[in-house]
Amino acid sequence: MTRTDPAQRPTATRYEPATARLGPSPQARAFLWLCVGLAVIGGLFLVDWLAPTLFPASLPTRAQDGLTLAISVLIESMPFVALGVVLSIVVQVWVPPGVIERWMPRRAWARRAVLSLLGMIVPVCECGNVPFARGLLMRGFSVPETLTFLIAAPIVNPIVIITTHQAFGFSDGILIARILGGYAIANLIGWLYSRHPSPDALLTDHFRDTCELVVHEPGGKWRRTIAQFVIELRAVMPALIIGSALAGAVQVLIPREALVAIGSNPALSIVAMMLLAMVVSICSNVDAFFALSFASTFTPGSIVAFLLVGPLVDVKMLALLRTTFTWRTLGGIVTVVVLSAFAIGTAVNLLA
To answer: Quick one: the chain helix, strand, coil %, rounded to 5?
Structure first.
């Protein structure tokens, strides 16, 4: 595995053996998620019993709606996840060592700036970017560099730019604010985590063990391709299913009318649309048309905040990111994204 910056990139000799880190067994994790599911179901019944007038629809109707929404999110995301896995394997197995690295600038900030534009030639949404980013990490790119790509790619994606232009044109600066804002947030996150004293600590133990397996994978390219395809699907698909289920459940648990009611307030509208973006978990390739339906009642800044937060830290994306990054890392990413999106949305409201 090519290592262009040994001081920052995880190498095989730096990984602890899997036996040195005793984590929960697969059976224990399955039991944990079963308990979480039962708790959610119990919570639904409790809310329905304590506040029967909170939702206009009955509990069975809401449960059916939640299941429909979860399946919709899953079906929408799966093609992009599959494409992302394929691109990840191409980067790891089929691209010769040094081909990508030799085109990268030597300075760290310049490398991050270039990598944050890589999404312009990777036509997948945020779901597919996660396995592709895992491939970059396994190839030897540093954690801050990979995070910069991962955050910027769903925004600078050419399909996203085109659909956002089709929905809003250049009115109120929404398109420009989304592109420049996403690029700025990505490079801010990359710079912040480049200051981390131990970038390897940002990754989960399980992912580091996966890197160890990939480094020592025997056989030719086709054998490694099949093995890596299985590894990536086993890592990403459970997270995608859980994230889709969470997205469907949250949408039926939070009354959307409560969010829409505060749409005209310059500050609260931004908060409401950021919450909505994290809840609905719409693919970044089409989220602009969903946001267009709120343009008549919400401020332009809140629309920009929605378009920035959704592709980066919605519940589905966080479930996928958890396959690679620790909870503490995700908490820092969410904090930076939310605060930055709020600041950018406020600036758009003042200028529009």
So the answer is: 75, 0, 25
Selection from 276, 279, 258, 249 nearest residue 65 by Cα = 249
Residue 325, strand partner residues: 203
The string of DSSP letters for 225-249 reads HHHHHHHHHHHHHHHHHHHHHHHHH
Tens of pLDDT, residue by residue over 19-45, are 334 445 555 655 665 676 667 666 666
Q: How far apart are CA 9 and CA 144, in angstroms?
A: 10
Please tell me whether residue 312 adopts helix, strand or coil conformation.
Answer: helix
Distance CA 84, CA 150 (A): 12
Question: DSSP letter at 92?
Answer: I
Instruction: For residue 98, list its beta bridge partners.
Output: none
Each residue of 310-324: b (16+ CB within 10 Å) or e? bbbbbbbbbbbbbbb
CA distances to 228, 266, 304 from 171, rounded to whole Å, are 45, 18, 12
Tokens of 25: 């067994």
> Rounded distance, CA 103 to CA 330, Å?
30
Phi/psi at 55 (nearest 5 deg)?
A: -115, 140
pLDDT of residue 12: 36
Q: What is the pLDDT of residues 313-347, one digit of tens each?
A: 988 888 888 888 999 999 999 999 999 999 999 99
CB 70 within 8 Å of CB 276: no
Whole-angstrom distance, CA of residue 43 vs CA of residue 250: 12
Q: Which residue has the tokens 């929605």?
A: 306
Beta strands in the chain (DSSP E): none
Q: Are 154 and 129 in contact (CB under 8 A)?
A: yes
Residue at token pair 């054998």:
223
